[in-house]
Amino acid sequence: MDIKETLLNLSKLCGIGTVKEASEYAASILKNYCEVSEENGLTVVGEIKGNSDYTLILDAHIDEVGFIVTNISESGFLTVAKCGGIDLRHLPAKEVTVHTKSGKIPAVFVSTPPHLSHSDTVNKEIGDYKIDSLLGSLATSIISVGDFVTYRSLTSELLNGRLAGKSFDDRAGVVCLIELARRLKNKPLACNVKFLLSDAEELGLRGAKTSAFKHNADAAIAIDVSFGDGPDIKSSECGKLGEGAMIGISPVLDREITDKLTAIANHKAIPHQLEVMGGKTGTNADVISVTKSGIRTGLLSIPLRNMHTDNEIIDISDIISVCDILEEYILSGGVMSGK
Amino acid sequence: MENNFKTLCLTVAPSGSENYVRDTILKEISPFAECRVDNSGNIIAFKKGKKRSASKLMVDAHMDEVGVIVSSITDDGFLKFQTVGGIKNAVLLCRKIKFENGLIGVIGTKPVHLLSKDTAETIPDTDDLYIDIGATDSNDAKQHIKIGAYGVMLGDFAKSDKNLVCSKAIDDRAGCAILIDLLKNESEYDFYATFTVGEEIGTRGAKTAAYSVDPDFAIVLEATTAADIDSVSREKQVCKLSSGPVVSFMDNGTMYDRELFDAALSSDIPSQKKCGVSGGNNSASIHISRSGVRTLALSVPCRYIHSAACVCNYEDIENTLKLTRYMINKICSGEIN
User: Fold this and answer.
1) In the sheet where A162-165 sits, what is the strand order?
2) C-alpha distance from residue A28 to each of A22, A36, B107 (Å)
3) Can you list the residues of chain A whose pLDDT is less than 70?
4) Under 8 Å CB-to-CB from B185, ≥6 apart: which residues?
5) Which residues lie closer than 8 Å to B326 by C-beta, 6 or more apart?
6) Which end of chain A is more exposed for a tag (fewer CB within 10 A), N or C?
């Protein structure tokens, strides 16, 4: 499996609500390396058995941010609601795809014509924005209320192995899981490893909550993205692209797992940086850790710029650092006990 | 014409750097017209028709598009830039930029999670925007991009079941595609065609092209703002997609020749008046060239103009082609003189 190629494919495909392109593709690749089951919604679970009853879940969410159609006008303009956190400022003239029952429709967010407004103003509500379906009066017969809408953005390569495109949050994490399954296949493992591609993270960590309940686990590590550096972001609020895996440190997270991840990264000289959070992490780790009687949980993140936009930017080398740390963690036995 | 139109839309050619689109156009038209490139960079082409024209006619479309120019590079390797032509910052945010050398960058923004209420409701100033090319620092960036490099907003080309096209630079590659088609096909009468530079920075190429051609009449082929959007009241919509070419009586640069205006609207080809006085185009330079040129503007109605995702109806382009041919014959036959 080529990490970059798989990631580019995952980025291009969509995963939201009932749209299963990305999860079906991920399942098809993951099947090469382990037993895979496709569960509720977009959820995909792979498993490699180990030599004990101890089970470790590795989680990355397969869903992406987007929109859902709430109204279709006779003249072909759509009103939508948000599915996840969206920066309204950048929506004007953004290309999107409407996922209808009869196929995908290219569409675009309306931008205010220059003669109507010389200054740049931001609508306060998503309900104030319109999407041009490019279908005029045909729209009402093709598009349905409740259809999902995703960004439509070409994925491009920047300098230094960096990529710009949509949905790297959290397809970058998904590709880590697939790569790990590849690396761990046929290796003797001290514990069972479940690869959880979870649904509905962007709606409030919902998929991981129910999946972690269903799949009994003793420990878990969430793999997500976190804020990457930029000129307008305080260095205390972000990680640096290209400087390795961000190891999460938070009261939500299990200190022993965190310490072990850090020790491995130090010992093996795997590029890494620490991400300290005083409370919740904003990732699936928050809900997995309090599932049933508690699951010891760690967090590794990939720094990402322009989060939740159609042009997120990641550095492939950071994805590889995450894989390297996790591979070593699992092969060395990880944390295999209760507290 | 459609393949040409797509190629033209996707070509990177902002004002000041029209080379790529000029090369594409010259390759298309050279077998069909006498062409030269003037000192400004305009293409001036003469189309030999079946008959001599009663008046000297110049048909114009501008080659350039709005874009950006790199003004400095930060220590961290981000590019600061200025806009070339009128672009609203809202359509720049998180947009990919493609540079002439093929390099891609993204105009970055702070993630929504970290925005305060105030910043979430404010579009940043151009001074606060930057292009992220993936460079690790300024030395890395400088190896791949120069200060003064030009780029454009990267767009795709999509077409709907209703013949609506969504792409970048429809302003004015639609006009270029029409003008190319006119040159590639047989013409009843002789006429001059100009593909001009620098429209977006003040209709500059048209000034020198009109001087050289020294026409009696001019037809300016353009794309103009259509605001036929649900949220816009009818009187502010200016013109509508799918209703044919837009004929202007007045805009911010020109009071148009009323006889040409009336003649264009009286054909059997679908057409509409531009119901509003806004914007401007090369007519501003052409109609006051030398001792004056009688000028007509025919525009393809276009939503979200000056963004990377403009929308027009391809049938409007076809009808603009038909109406242009109709007006060429009206003028060149001497029916209007």
Assistant:
1) A156-157, A162-165, A312-315
2) 10, 9, 34
3) 118-119
4) none
5) B264, B267, B269
6) C
Rg (chain A; Cα; Å): 20
Q: How far is B93 from chain A (nearest CA, A)?
A: 5
ipTM: 0.92
Contact (CB, 8 A) for A94 and A157 = no
**Taking the model in full, what pTM does it have?**
0.94
A73 close contact with B: CB closer than 8 A: yes
Residue with tokens 């993204």: B106
Q: Is B43 on the interface with A (CB under 8 A)?
A: no
DSSP B28: H
Structure tokens at A116: 């109507």
Write out pLDDT tens, residues B221-269: 999 999 999 989 989 999 999 999 999 999 999 999 999 999 999 999 9
Q: CA-to-CA distance for B277 and A193, rounded, in angstroms?
A: 67
Choose from A126, A159, A225 for mutation: most chain B CBs within 10 A. A159
**Quick check: is B199 catalytic?**
yes
User: Any idea of the CA torsion for B239, A132, A92, A316, to the nearest 10 degrees?
Assistant: -140
A266 in reach of chain B (CB within 8 A): no
Q: For an interface test with B, give the residue of A77, A115, A304 to mutate (most B CBs within 10 A).
A: A115
pLDDT digits (tens, 9 = 90+) for A228-267: 999 989 998 999 999 999 999 999 999 999 999 999 999 9
Return the H-helix or E-strand segment holding A223: strand A219-227
Q: Do A231 and B106 touch (CB under 8 A)?
A: no
**Nearest-CA residue of chain B relative to A116?**
B236
Closest by CA to B12, choosing from B163, B191, B118, B150, is B150
Active-site annotation holder among A21, A47, A201, A202: A201
List the 269-298 stretch of B: residues with Cβ below 8 A of A: 276, 278-279
User: Mean pLDDT of all residues in chain B?
Assistant: 96
Q: Do B156 and A90 touch (CB under 8 A)?
A: no
Residue for token pair 């609020």? A237
Angle at CA of residue B130, ends B125 and B136, nearest 5° = 160
**Closest listed residue to residue A56, CA positions, set A180, A226, A203:** A180
Question: Is cis: bond before A318, omega within 30 of 0?
Answer: no
CA distance B289 to chain A (A): 27
